[in-house]
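In this section we walk through a basic example: taking a raw amino acid sequence and producing a predicted 3D structure, encoded as discrete structure tokens. The instruction is simple. Fold the sequence below.
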Amino acid sequence: MSTSPAVVNFAPQKGSVEIREIETPNIGDEDVLLEVSNVGVCGSDLHQWTADHSWPVNYPVVLGHEFGGTIVEKGSRVVGWDIGDRVVSETAAIIDPNNPMSRQGRYNLDPTRKGFGYGVHGAMTRYVRVPSRILHHVPDHLPFEQACLTEPCCVAYNAVVKNAHIEPGDRVVVLGPGTIGILCAAMARLCGAEVAIVGLEADRHRLNIAAENYGCIPIIGDAKAWAMERDGMGADGIIDAAGASITLKIALDLVRPAGWISKVGWGPQPLGFNIDPLVQKNVRLQGSFSHHWAIWERVIAILASGQLNVRPIIGGVWPIEQWHEAFEKMHSGEVVKSVLKP
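The resulting token sequence is shown next.
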């Protein structure tokens, strides 16, 4: 059996990630074997590396769930796919098809769902086993280093297009200029909103990327003056894409009465503040998690058409052996998104 180097998270302690040789996986009748072309580093990969995540992990596990590549082998019951097809994959590696959520097409909300990079081996290696049900075609003109970012674009699409109600001319504030925050801001701009993206002084580089490439208004610190500028009532909507609980308090302060908050950022800290303004302002608070098949098809279409260009957020492409540098550059905020090439 051949082996390939892989970025493996081997234990729950901080820093428990290293390169290990792993065997090429065997595939089932409904799976394909994908040769990975590129894999994006996600904030959740960093959280598992720094051991400040809040989800169960099946150690040891190969990291990586933002990936694309070429089919090199397929199972006996796989239809509609051929060797050599260029594809990207969703993250829902294991689902219960009989779960009520799965039956509704909302398999991303199946409580038993297990994803690449924490529940099963992910794509920070040369070959990954993927169920054919979650594959999507990638047009020939879309490079894999961009196509592998379909997944975070789908997270943003769900948070902004599906789980928020944006009308052209709305004022929207995005809290947190990480990958998801910037992509949420870009999606809100596509919906016709005027968008401010908010961060800290350390985020200045990332805020500038959002301003220069996606037409956003960058704000360091307090966004209240901008939110109130039009009529003194606040922003129509807030997208909370920060990895801290306290930003929900900021969102409640910035949103106008009868406005909405779409929360896509994970923050494990206790709230520790009064949420009565949610009631008093008659605000809709909406969580947004993951994505499903139809969202992937839409997002690939807007990437392929050029309506959404992800190149500005890609800070570099590193060989798999240099994963540590790629993780560090992203963790420090020097780059928005690191991409690996196995």
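Looking at the output, two observations stand out. Residues 3-149+310-341 form a domain with the Quinone Oxidoreductase; Chain A, domain 1 fold (CATH 3.90.180.10). The chain has eleven helices and 18 strands. In the next section we compare this with other chains.
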